[in-house]
Specification:
single chain, 275 residues, alpha/beta, Rossmann fold, 2 domains, six-stranded mixed beta sheet, five-stranded parallel beta sheet, 11 helices, 11 strands, 19% strand, elongated
């Protein structure tokens, strides 16, 4: 009986730049494919500098027609406050509808006891705006997001006729303490791939290594954008090349990496073949 072909990811040193609590399933899946996952969180989350707009929106949560969550961090920032209100907000089906950008965000919402009325089929904010377009005319929409979020989504919602209240739910900052071993490996280019999950992660990686080294890094290491918004950020940061995962699920990330390394030319720079 012939042995199964080795995984294209076997032995590949792959840097995951999300927080450990957000990456557990991906880290295990990478290890299961024989890869060597290295954790280097490039984001920490902090409260807004001005919390009044968020607190005011939370106090009026039940008055919105739609609440649209584009990340698990936004869910936590809002629903942790909502569930501690006195009197508490009790979910009322059909009153305030809730939409999520993807299944992980939807699961986070359900953990707080709220139902999810819509999950974007393509797992990105603009797709969500398109899919909800028919129900947004004159609808009041709460959009809690990070401090560096793109203007594309609120613009698309307003173009669809929504009355959008956009609030900063959290700030993204570069962690004060980083794993120096993984950081050194990234700066020296001795890893095979770096997975980036948000524009903030792209910005923080570029700030961490410097613009010149970032450009060189993008030529020798696979930078993988998880989601179209992150891909746009890599373009804006002038990355020489990068991979773009078709979706944000663990399966899509593994497939994108596996396809790349399976077709890469032996002994060529890791980043030589980009989509």
């Amino acid at each position: 009986m012939s042995e199964a072909a080795p995984s294209p990811l076997a032995g590949k040193r792959i840097v995951v730049t999300r927080a450990e609590e957000q990456s557990d399933s991906l880290l295990k899946a990478l290890a299961g494919k024989g890869a060597v996952p290295l954790l280097l969180p490039l984001l920490e989350f902090a409260s807004p500098e001005d919390a009044f707009p968020l607190n005011n929106a939370v106090a009026n949560f039940a008055q919105f027609d739609w609440v649209i969550f584009t990340s698990q961090n936004g869910v936590r920032a809002v629903l942790e406050r909502v569930t501690t209100l006195d009197p508490p907000v009790i979910p009322q089906p059909g009153k305030t509808r809730i939409a999520a950008v993807g299944p992980a965000t939807a699961d986070a919402i359900r953990q707080f006891g709220f139902s999810v009325d819509h999950v974007a089929s393509s797992h990105n904010g603009l797709a969500l705006a398109v899919e909800l377009r028919g129900s947004l005319q004159n609808a009041s929409v709460l959009l809690p997001r990070g401090d560096h979020a793109s203007l594309d989504l609120p613009t698309a919602l307003r173009d669809a006729g929504a009355l959008v209240t956009e609030v900063v739910a959290y700030r993204t900052i570069l962690p004060e303490h980083l794993n120096e071993g993984v950081r050194w490996a990234v700066e020296k280019g001795t890893v095979h791939a770096i997975l980036l999950f948000s524009p903030s992660a792209v910005r923080h990686l570029r700030d961490l290594v410097g613009a010149e080294k970032f450009s060189l890094l993008s030529q020798s290491v696979v930078l993988a954008a998880i989601g179209p918004v992150t891909a746009a950020a890599l373009n804006e940061a002038k990355a020489a090349g990068f991979l773009a995962a078709a979706d944000t699920t663990v399966e899509a990330v593994l497939e994108t990496l596996s396809n790349h390394f399976a077709s890469a030319v032996p002994n060529s720079p890791a980043g030589a073949k980009f989509a």
